[in-house]
Amino acid sequence: MTRFWWMIGLASLVAFSACSGTPELEGPESPEPLEPVGQKTFAITVEQAVSAGCSTSQVKGLSLQIVAQQNCLIPNALSEVPSGSNISIGSNIFPYMQTAARDALVKAAKAKPSTTMTVSSMFRSLAQQYLLYRWYLAGKCSITLAAKPGNSAHETGRALDISEYSTWKSTLESNGFSWQGSNDPWHYTYVGSGTHDLSGTSVKAFQMLWNINNPGDLIDEDGIYGPQTEARLKASPAGGFAIPPNCNPNDPPEGVLDTVSCDEVGGWAQDPDEPAKAIDVHVYFGGPSGDANAKGVPTHAAIHRDDLCGPLGSCEHGFSLPSPLSLHDGKPHAVHAYGIDSAGGANAQLQSSPKNLECAPQIPAGVRRHILSQDVMQAWKLDSFWHVMPVSDAQLSAIDESTDLPSTPQLVKADDGSSAVWLIDGPWRRHVPNPAVAAAWGFDLTQVATLPAAELNAMPEGTNVRGRPVLVKATGPAVYLIDDEQKTAEPTDGGVASDAATGKDGSVSEAGTGGSTGQPDGGTAGAAANQAAGWESAGSDSGCSVRPRSSRSDLAWAAMALLALLAAGRRRAS
Ligand SMILES: [Zn+2]
Q1: Following DSSP, what letter does each residue of 115-140 receive, concatenated?
Q2: Cα of 533 to ligand 1 centre, how many Å?
Q3: Distance between Cα 124 and ligand 1 center (Å)
Q4: CB 3.0-4.6 Å disulfide test: which of 22, 144, 402, 442 passes with 522?
Q5: What's the gap in Å between 49 CA and the centre of ligand 1?
């Protein structure tokens, strides 16, 4: 009891005897209140600690973590000042200084071993300064002045207040300390060599600790104490975070969801821990990750983008998916994108995610061709999510119906060395104009059958294969491909064409990639296959008597499909 009242008395005394803070302050900053320790509560937040007493030791656990994380930023910057011998540091004081200042203080104390040096204020972590500032604002705990968090001289690791200031003045000054002067006589600042500018590091250390422990609520690690940081500080556990400081924290992926349009969903992503490596991205349509109604699609951010080279230090970080036609229903659909951490850490939602996808169904001109079964869908690697656009019954019936889609795609080339790849479609041969179109259709270019040139050339030439498959479905179960009506002259020898379409090569075009995983994963035959298949450069229509009919939109799709193909190739290579 006696000791308690003694402390209360001293506390009120010390309230007058505070020290100076930053130039913003109009007087000396109050020292830490002298509250008996022993009522430390663990499971409270920093905000709860504001009203839980007058001891900054409530946030000691968190403060120790902040100091340790600061020592990650500047190795060995802060050291504990040893109590005992003739240095008296109360348990209400946080006994840390910059290492050079600590050494100088210990040296000064040893110079007068029989004289006591009573420390009334020393280092303050961001959390401690926050408590003092709140108590100052509330007129509590005898705090008559406290700097805003991040602005106190006692956060620099170079300041201390001592009760016997005049006794120690010459000794401290000869050891690199500067006396504050009569306006704040208790306050000394170490101005000798070997110190660092710690301004902002306590804030930055806290921000890093928060991010290590809250991967779902990441904040900027900029060392600036603003509302974003203050809100997290209030919510932080006073006794310290569950995950301790880490000098090499695993940084989360970064990136941007740039584009969500009726043509493309794309952006970029990079993991700062492995900046040159391409990482995976998960795109969710219809809701965030974890939403049972959302469809998640994995892709790989490996597309070369010139605009990324400078800012990111390497260029292959873009990703691009086609806009899924099943969502072109005139309604809004949220699109979320997440970078996948290369070290298995938490995934990070990309900037600008989510974005809204809202597209009216745009039915291309042409005829409709019935797709007879799910087996045919799979053989063509057509997917209800990526390729099937919902239309009204009236819209469907307004489209002329043509022949059914063949049961499987047949790809052929001539045995005369020409590079053109053809799709056999009934009696017709239809040019696949470039690898991008093949990729958009999921055609496997490693599985192209060879026909005698005379046999192939005898077939009538139809229109080019369209840039991408567009399917439509109304309220009924039937699904149709929108395609060109083939109107060339009847073949002179229908039997040959028929054999080619359904003969010995029937299963060849399906071998290899298999699966019905949809557009992004279908058609990943690999860029190397282009050479093997003898492709002319994209855009060339040599070997085709029919000029390309691609619309601008088709070209855009084809370009994106090519990018996806290249990305797939890189994935295989890595
Ligand atoms: Zn001071």
Answers
A1: S-EEEEE-B--HHHHHHHHHHHHHT-
A2: 78
A3: 11
A4: 442
A5: 23
User: 422 - beta bridge partners?
Assistant: 412, 431
pLDDT at position 42, please? 54
Q: How far apart are CA 296 and CA 319, in angstroms?
A: 15
- Label residue 35 by pLDDT band (50, 70, 90): low
- What kind of architecture, by CATH, is found in domain 2-201? 2-Layer Sandwich (3.30)
Ligand 1: distance of its center to the CA of 21 in Å? 7
Residue 545 Cα to ligand 1 middle (Å): 88
Give distance in angstroms: CA of 160 to centre of ligand 1: 6
Query: In sequence order, what are the residues at sequence separation of 6 or more whose Cβ sits closer than 8 angstroms to the Cβ of residue 514?
Result: none
Positive/negative CA dihedral, 192, 197, 198, 200: positive
The predicted-structure confidence for 397-440, as pLDDT tens digits, reads as follows 999 999 999 999 999 999 998 999 999 999 999 999 999 999 99
> How is residue 46 written in tokens?
């920093």
What is the CA(11)–ligand 1 centre distance, in A?
15
* Confidence grade of residue 246 (pLDDT, cut at 50, 70, 90): confident
The verdict on domain 254-358 having CATH code 2.60.40 is: yes
- How far, in Å, is the centroid of ligand 1 from the Cα of 313? 45
Distance from residue 139's CA to the centre of ligand 1 (Å): 19
Please give the Cα distance from 416 to 450 (Å, whole number). Answer: 9
Strands laid side by side in the 303-304 sheet = 254-260, 264-270, 316-322, 303-304
CA of 83 to the centre of ligand 1 (A): 19
Q: Is 346 exposed, middle or buried (0-12, 13-18, 19+ CB in 10 A)?
A: middle
Residue-wise pLDDT tens digits, 54-84: 988 889 999 999 999 999 999 999 999 988 7
**CB–CB of 409/491 below 8 Å?**
no
Q: In whole angstroms, what is the distance from residue 288 CA to residue 405 CA?
A: 36
**DSSP-derived 3-state class of residue 245:** coil
Indicate whether 564 pLDDT > 70.
no
Span 96-107, mean pLDDT?
Answer: 96
Q: Looking at residues 117-125, what average pLDDT do you find?
A: 93
Annotate 78-119 with DSSP letters as a single string.
EEEPPPBTTEEE-TTSB-EEEHHHHHHHHHHHHHSTTS-EEE
CA of 101 to the centre of ligand 1 (A): 15
Distance 178 CA to ligand 1 centre (A): 12
Q: Is the dihedral of CA 482, 488, 494, 496 positive or negative?
A: negative
Cα 30 to ligand 1 centre (Å): 8
Q: From ligand 1's centre to the CA of 85, what distance in Å?
A: 23
Q: Where in the chain is the domain with CATH 2.60.40?
A: 254-358
Q: Pick from 379, 363, 361: which is nearest to 481 by CA?
A: 363
> From the CA of 31, how far away is ligand 1's center (Å)?
7
C-alpha 121 – ligand 1 centre gap (Å): 6
Q: CATH 3.30.1380.10: which residues of the chain?
A: 2-201
Ligand 1 center to residue 162 CA distance, Å?
8
